[in-house]
Design brief:
Layout lengths: L2 H11 L11 E3 H8 L3 H9 L6 E3 L2 E5 H16 L1
Antiparallel strand pairs: 1-3, 2-3
Helix pairs in contact: 1-4, 2-3
Length: 80
């Protein structure tokens, strides 16, 4: 799955009435919703360094590119 696909998911999740630029980073809750897993699972993947994250202050964010790379890697492992 490409980053553009995740951008589409994020744009659908947001309120369509406000015109905003696409998000580059997702919160743990948003990343969990995009992957279809719990926020606890996302935090676990981050702690194991399986999913790359960024820390801005106390916030933990996952970039759309990191999320796409994570999915791409899992798909490659499944097909190997």
């Amino acid at each position: 799955m490409e980053a553009a696909s995740f951008c589409l998911i994020v744009c659908v999740m947001e309120d369509r009435r406000e015109a905003r630029p696409p998000k580059l980073n997702l919160s743990v809750d948003e990343a969990a919703a995009a992957l279809g897993v719990s926020p606890r699972m996302v935090r676990s993947l981050i702690a194991k360094r399986t999913l790359k994250s960024n820390h801005i202050g106390r916030r933990v964010l996952v970039s759309v590119e990191a999320l796409a790379a994570f999915v791409r890697d899992r798909e490659a492992e499944a097909s190997a």
